[in-house]
Amino acid sequence: MKIAVVVQRYGPAVNGGAELHARYIAEHLARHAQVEVLTTCATDYVTWRNELQPGVEQVNGVPVRRFRVKHERDPRVFAKRSDRVFDERHSIGDELDWLDAEGPTSPALVDHIAKHAAGFDYCLFFSYRYYHAYYGARAASGRAILVPTAERDATIGLSIFQPLFRSVRALMYNSPEERAMINAVSGNEAVPGVVVGIGSNVPSNPQAARFRQKHNIRGPFAIYVGRVDRNKGCNELFEYFQDYLKDPAGKLSLVLIGHSLLEIPHHPRIRHLGFLDDADKFDAIAAAELLIMPSYYESLSMVALEAWALGRPVLANGKCDVLRGQCIRSNAGLYYDDGAEFLGTLEALEQNRWLAGSLGRNGRQFYREQYDWPVIERKYLEMFDRLKQEAPRPIIDPLPGWFDRRRQDLRAAEEVLAGLPTGPAGRQQAAAPHRAAADAAGRRRA
Amino acid sequence: MAEFNVRSDSVNVEQIMEQLRARIREKRGVDYTEQQIRELAAVKLEKFLDPRGVRSDLLEQFRKAQPAYEPPELPNFAFEDSTLFESHRAPIRWLRKLLLPILKLFFNPNPLIQALNIQARLNTMNAEREARREATRRQLDQLYYELIHNLVVEATRLGIEVKNLKMRLESVSSRLEFNERRARALESVVVYKPSGAESERPPRQQQQHQHQPAPQPQRSQPPPQTTAYAPQAAESAAPAPAAPAGGSPQGVEGPGQRSRRRRRRRGRRGGGSAAGIMGSPAAQSTSDPAAGAIAGDAVTAPETDAVDDYESGEEGGDAASAAQAADAHHESSDAEPRPAPAPDRSEEPDSQ
User: Fold this and answer.
1) A339-351 vs A234-245: helix crossing angle, rounded to 10
2) If DSSP states are collapsed to H, E and C, what string results for chain A?
3) Lower Cβ count inside 10 Å, N or C end of chain B?
């Protein structure tokens, strides 16, 4: 079996969520099939500048073929087109222009897929929102399997992606919430799909003491791992945690790991350690009392899974449906909707050791049952087997013509998003107008 | 949150969150949202009394918002008989004038010239009229705003005044209620009991007394009192010449006199037999007129004290002066045998 993994960036130094997801999947599927990665020469997701050489190279034993990006992203043009399609009535042409502005625009990659797709059994496309997935899935037609990594943001409301969700051979979802959202927006229930997610290379014996000694950290602490960014809810985390620090009974410190795009409050109990390698990261999580995940938009929080794999409870933002759903399904984390709940849940986890321990144990079990690598690999292989037995699906509809592209009859993507159901999977309800409006406002601020 | 408790080994996050939220609600009290709290905080209790709600500079604001009126320069045209043939080039003007008779062979331009001339004048008149009307309207607007301003001020003032009046009314009604209570207390204290001589007075005499209006001006009558027993006291004090001489006029009595009288009363009580003081039938059967008088007054010791308490505890009023009159009556009865009780003054025409 020959499989192509198509992703926007790829490499050992590329640590974005979807990109890491793609690398892990490629490396694990390489044990069962012949895998080739098709990607761009870009490493920066903001500019898509060509920084790597085009051609083929080996990354951890997997061949990687890179293609040049035609043009870098112009932030002003992208912002203007984003405003147009997200907030105003627009046309398909506007959406395609937005996709082109977003990048990474690599016609060479798409041409290669069109020419060589027949040589692969399946092409796995990661991240539905990018140029390579939209045009690449069309080029691969009946061989395209999509790993959407969709978040609850306005992009899901763009109409160009709905035929994509309906016409690929299969979808590998990250969470039941993601699946429900895509089903609701595109009506693709008939397309084969499975909630898979992603595993992690968690070490079996992390060294918490080593981390404490290396970074001179004493006392109990909560940890945040990821980009320190407003989009990740870090400003809210700082606000809430500073409230917590006013309580003399609380003993926890906050340790932040990851690049920072946000000013970090100056407080002796808030430590920012910057970007750490995987070993240090796992040591840090093992040393922590709990992991805090303040993000509003996640398709699957790998860090939360890693914390659970290491037996640590998670405190998540309850306004993120995926995180909330994962906490409920796993019984391994608490969640908060506002500052008072943040304080209440944090204090409960800090002061009730039994509760924290039980949640951690549940998390470890949840990870083993759902996200351990053998489970993930098995789900992919089962899907390939299933697709082999099914007849290929029809080819994706051709792109609309000149007049259809210019018809201004599409609703703003924010409006579409506001109409989608919210809440954890199985308990979803129609989006309340005020919440939808608040979400939209929050996204716009972000 | 320390007492947060999950007993089961199988942890249910949703149940835990419910418990946590319940505890947070308990801590907060009522589970208001932030928005509700802000709304509640913004509510004004007495809006019309809020001085920030009354704009004293309404007129100035209006004047600022509306600049002085300047009539617009409306476009118009001037149309005279020579307008059609004017030109800045003299030869052309001359040529047109020369050819005018020829033109007039084709049509008569005079009605057109006249019509347009009239129209130009009408336009001017209309513009002027419109400007005058607009100016008048703006002046009226200013007056209206001034009027509204005054109305707002007046309404606010009236509102405050109504509030004040309501408070005064409440105060007066509470005082009235208090006075009524006091009057009832005094009425219950001063129990009138007629003596044997009075009861034997022939009814004819009483009738005569009623039919013949008493020579009121000659009698030293106290000012008409509202309570029923006050005239009786004055009436009983009148025959005794010592009463006006020995004390101040009724209603004008110093605290020293009052306390002296009180001491005297206490002294008498101490001297007399308890039965006599209490007005028992045994005391009445004795021939001591003083005892009978005391009994006839029927002002028992505790009740007198109650009256005294009223006098000393409350401000002087009708009831206090009536109590003083009763005291005066009491003292006069000490000196001589008790006179016949006065008839009810309320039935006399001059007392009304």
Assistant:
1) 60
2) CEEEEECCCCCCCCCCHHHHHHHHHHHHHCCCCEEEEEEECECCCCCCCECCCCEEEEECCEEEEEECCCECCCHHHHHHHHHHHHHCCECHHHHHHHHHHHCCECHHHHHHHHHHHHHCCEEEEECCCCHHHHHHHHHHHHHEEEECCCCCCHHHHCCCHHHHHHHCCEEEECCHHHHHHHHHHHCCCCCCEEECCCCCCCCCCCCHHHHHHHHCCCCCEEEEECCECHHHCHHHHHHHHHHHHCCCCCCCEEEEECCECCCCCCCCCEEECCCCCHHHHHHHHHHCCEEEECCCCCCCCHHHHHHHHCCCCEEEECCCHHHHHHHHHHCCEEEECCHHHHHHHHHHHHHCHHHHHHHHHHHHHHHHHHHCHHHHHHHHHHHHHHHHHCCCCCCCCCCCCHHHHCCCCECCHHHHHHCCCECCCCCCECCCHHHHHHHHHHHHHC
3) C
In a shared domain, residues A318 and A182 = no
| B4-13, B133-142, B198-207, range with greatest mean pLDDT | B133-142
Q: Do B12 and A333 touch (CB under 8 A)?
A: no
B2 part of contact set with chain A, CB < 8 Å? yes
Question: Which CATH number characterizes residue A91's domain?
Answer: 3.40.50.2000
pLDDT tens readout for residues A51-89: 999 999 999 999 999 999 999 999 999 999 999 999 999
Q: Do B179 and B259 belong together in one domain?
A: no
Does residue A238 share a domain with residue A340?
A: yes
Residue B1 belongs to a domain = no
| A354 inside 8 A of chain B by CB | yes
Query: For B49-58, what is each residue's pLDDT tens digit?
Result: 555 555 566 6
Residue B31, pLDDT score: 59
Average pLDDT, chain B: 63
**Nearest CB to A362 within list B11, B24, B34:** B11
- CA dist A199 and A226 (Å) reads 17
Residue with more model confidence, B44 or B161: B161
pLDDT confidence of residue A201 = 83
Is B45 a domain residue?
A: no
Q: Which of A311, A337, A371 is the last residue of a domain?
A: A371
Q: Chain-wide mean pLDDT for chain A? A: 89
> In angstroms, rounded to a whole number, what is the distance separating the alpha carbons of residues A138 and A270?
48
For the record, the structure tokens of A135 come out as 């045009």
CA B39 to chain A, closest CA, distance in angstroms equals 17
User: Residues B65, B148: one domain?
Assistant: yes
How confident is the model at residue B283, as a pLDDT?
A: 39
Residues A19 and A74 in one domain: yes
The model's pTM is 0.56
Domain hosting residue A144, numbered range: 2-199+374-445
B137 alpha carbon, distance to own chain's centre: 42
Full residue range of the structural domain in which residue B96 is found: 53-186
Which residue does chain A place closest to B12, by CA atoms? A331
Return the closest-CA partner of residue B304 out of B252, B271, B263: B263
Give the ipTM of the model, two decimals please. 0.76
Query: pLDDT-derived band of residue B42, with 50, 70 and 90 as boundaries?
Result: low
Q: Compute the distance between CA of residue A57 and CA of residue A165 in angstroms, rounded to an integer.
A: 31
Residue of A323, A324, A354 to mutate for B, most B C-beta atoms under 10 A: A354
Chain A interface includes B6 (CB < 8 A):
yes
- Tens of pLDDT, residues A269-312: 999 999 888 899 999 999 999 999 999 888 788 899 999 999 99
| Alpha-carbon distance A288 to nearest alpha carbon in chain B (angstroms) | 20
Q: Does B188 or B198 have the greater pLDDT score? A: B188
Same domain, B173 and B75: yes
Do both B158 and B63 map to the same domain? yes
Whether residues A293 and A246 share a domain: the answer is yes
